[in-house]
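Hi C.,

You asked whether I'd gotten around to modeling the 240-residue construct. I have! Everything is below, sequence then structure, no commentary in between.
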Amino acid sequence: MNLLIYKTKEELLNNLARYIVKIAKKAISEQDCFNFVLTGGNSPKELYHLLSTRYKEEIDWTKVYFFFGDERNVLPSHESYNGLMAKESLLDPLNIPANQIFYVNTELAPEKAAIEYAKAINKHFNGADINFDLILLGMGDDAHTASLFPETAILKNKEATVDAVYVDKLSTYRVSFTAPLINKAKNIAFLVFGEGKANAVKEVIEGNKNNALYPSQLIQPYDGHVTWFIDDHAAILLDN
């Protein structure tokens, strides 16, 4: 695990953007494409804006394929749909064609949506092992990541796939990558900032092992690398 702590959110986001550029260039040079998994919520909006403006010319976007690590059980037109946020802040500004974007079809029932998303991913990788070049993750103040929420059934799923999960605290379903699928990635980057995340950061990074309570602890790539990009506020409780 690589832990990078920044004094300001601006410094953090620019360094993460440069990290993404580096990974993208390497993937494109080696395999002529970059398979990039986006995260939702509000945290990455500014990052996506940076990528589509300041760093726009740094990546050959015609060779980037976009995926979503999880999705909310709302229609694609709903403001909470992760795909819509990414579309508005990143994909549309970069004029990414539809065949390079893999949205979760939330017009289907959650279980069916998960099955169809897994099929689409498998088809893209054409039978090869599914190793995303980079998975971008956030983390909630309850230490959830993607839609791996504390004490939910998906945490026990040992298959590298996409699954539907009912989240009691939210009274709704989500569709999410399982931890084993995330852990197959070549690179994983956590984006975490703000003092509200400090307790979760402390427990996940330095606390006792308890995957059921702190699901982000499950993220330990098998052969890849995980890097935490956090600011001083999120790191305030860390001992080191």
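If it helps when you're writing up: The first strand starts at residue 2 and ends at 6.

Thanks,
B.
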